Amino acid sequence: MADAVKRKKRKKKHGTAPWRQTKRALLILFFLTFVAIVTPVWHVVRAQGKTSESPKNTVTDPVPRKDTAESVTPQPGTADKRAESGPLLTDNAADQTQSTQASSTPVQYTEPVPLTTLPSAEENPAAWYEYGAGAQDTNSITILGCGDNLMHSQLYENAFNGETYDFSPYYENVKAFVGSADIATINQETPMATDLYEPSTYPSFNTPKQIGDAILDTGFDVINLGNNHIYDKGTAGALATLEYFAERNIPTVGIYTSMEDAGDIRVVEKNGIKVAFVSFVEFTNSDADEEGTDIIWLEDTEGMKDQIRAARQAADIVVAHVHWGIEGTTELTELQTSMAQFMVDEGVDIVFGNHPHWLQELTVLTRESDGTRCPVIYSMGNFLSGMDRREELITGFLTVEVSRDANGKVIPVKMGFLPLVIHFSNLEKTDLRIYPLCRYSEEMAAANAVNVIRDDDTFDLDLIQNVVDTSIPKEYQNQMVSIY
Length: 484
Description:
484 residues; 9-stranded mixed sheet
């Protein structure tokens, strides 16, 4: 009864007076007004959030190459696809699909993006890899070099698909980075003479010529053939290799049809900057078995001087490939250090060294005559090979930026080193690939079959980083840094 009385009193208190109706209307009006204001704001915030967030493990494609004039233009039908950015490395199959779909429309920047806007290597080691290796100044270009492209039998056997050889998967994770450089150069360590001889491996290499298709498709512009294996199939094998690239109008250095041919300096021009390439060799495993080729040897200092002087007259920048040193060590020989300074003093601006199969010191030497600072790397290790000692699986790209100053002189101004790892998870090496270290995980390192082949130490990220740190100064790893 008391509850009934209370309910009756409350009803009587509020009643059905006009004020109640007015208050209800005001509340409804206020609610509708609130919804009308908040809803569009929420949609904007939500849209911005989606735009700013990147899917997990998705990497932006590097900037494609700029279309600039070259002194040597590949003929139609060749595998020169530098403007196409391939998919970058992702950590699993689902992300690989996502990255491949995203890369079908490469990122195009409407304005140059200065390197200074990128996160530092400490903040994001993959930032430079994601960005690409191209120069962002019309007065500058980048020149990228790498280690030995050394084709053991497992590599070409796994590349055979029943009809032909497809080497391109080996390079798929670094193709976009190579292609974004203004000029990329590689040391093709093995002859390509399978029109004459059967494929073969160590100690006398002969690689299916389709390896040339793959390295050109990856984006390499200049090929060094001056190395200790160039005569593995005699003079005929060396000439067949030269012929392959000549048919595609791709400049080669290191071995020539004559000294007159060697005097015809190979020059590539980008952004109005002319880059000359020369090559010097300490020794070869076999001698030429007939006439028809020439090499400029490291012991021939007068021949080297003539070559460098001719290159300086023909171009703004001189790049030297050098095959030298002792295999399987980080220790430099007296010949390496003395000849490096000799070349720099004579006029070489950048030295890309190879042969030891291990990374060796990256440094900057000063030219005595004009104070120019010149990047020198004594060995970049193996870019691709079937070798399986731990140190032979750790390599990298050296990228040097050269720039024209206000007086019109072109000099090296920056450099950066992108560490790479050769990975395979089974003894047959059927899944062998090159990976940027900044995209290589501890799980992948643990799964690398080198841990089965070599039980003297564990292949992990600490070991890999220690190998890199032994030869490459920290400040140049994963980022472009001034050399002055």
